Amino acid sequence: VKHINVRIPDEEAERFDEISSFCRESGYNLSQIVRLLVKRWYQNQSGRH
């Protein structure tokens, strides 16, 4: 099995670390986070019109 090394920009990696540590601390699971992000994105989209 080849190991695929995906290079994540440091900025993105830091942001992901922040989000994942926040998830652990707050006890959120990933689906709740995704739902929250989708809701926020949707509100931003509808707010522009």
From TrEMBL:
This protein is called: Ribbon-helix-helix protein CopG domain-containing protein
Q: Which organism is it from?
A: marine metagenome
